[in-house]
Design brief:
Length: 234
């Protein structure tokens, strides 16, 4: 597989070739998250104040206040998850083709959103079970299923087939994939630790949002090449 320095060069080349689209997608994600946060704060504050006025005791306020804001919290939580997944899928499509525009990436991501959402929950459930079983099975499965999302998006296959394809791609290269993902994760952790000292951890979060799908796409293409396969057109 590609060496780390080659991966870094590839990441920069892809980002530079479509920087405008990458940045717009992430800014849209951040903007929606901020809007959701503001709505949640205003709505929650109003509900809590109304409950506080009508409550006869602190205990009844605590219970009634919690029950009153619970539906709103759940709805906003679902919105956050959906927006995160949608924009993440859009970033994968931006990584695949530097000529893709902002609107085209969002459109493609929307078309794949339903199956991508189901696959994401399936992966979460499977990996949760794996980590419950003494952690090691979870780590093994995390690497084996690492490419399930890009396979689903790029190759237009079903959920089960995407998981099988990911395992097939990783087969014979588990340690190579694991090592590269681990190294990037450590670099991200270190950068976040250093920048958080200066209150700039948000910079790392933005870079992760942009660069991680690009990194995954590069590994995906590399494995296709090593196995003598050609990526299907989206």
């Amino acid at each position: 597989m590609k060496k780390i320095n080659e991966i870094v060069k590839s990441i920069w080349a892809i980002f530079e070739g479509n920087a405008k689209t990458f940045i717009f997608i992430v800014l849209m994600q951040i903007g929606i998250m901020i809007l959701v946060g503001i709505i949640g704060f205003i709505s929650g504050f109003g509900v809590i104040m109304a409950q506080l006025v009508n409550s006869q005791s602190l205990e009844s306020f605590s219970l009634s206040g919690f029950l009153a804001i619970l539906p709103m919290v759940l709805i906003l939580g679902i919105v956050v998850i959906c927006v995160s997944l949608w924009t993440s899928f859009a970033l994968y499509y931006a990584a695949e083709d530097k000529k893709r525009s902002f609107s085209e990436c969002l459109s493609l991501a929307w078309k794949s959103f339903g199956s991508g959402l189901v696959l994401s929950f399936c992966l979460g459930f499977v990996l949760m079970l794996g980590y419950i079983l003494l952690i090691i099975p979870g780590i093994i499965l995390s690497v084996c299923l690492y490419f399930a999302i890009p396979v689903l998006l790029y190759e237009k296959v079903g959920i089960i087939e995407a998981m099988k394809r990911s395992m097939a791609l990783v087969k014979g290269y588990w340690w190579s994939v694991f090592g590269r993902v681990l190294l990037l994760s450590l670099c991200v952790y270190l950068a976040n630790f250093v920048l958080s000292i200066f209150g700039l951890s948000i910079v790392v979060q933005i870079l992760i949002a942009i660069l991680w799908p690009v990194f995954t796409y590069i590994l995906y293409k590399d494995l296709l090449s090593l196995k003598g396969e050609v990526a299907k057109e989206s």
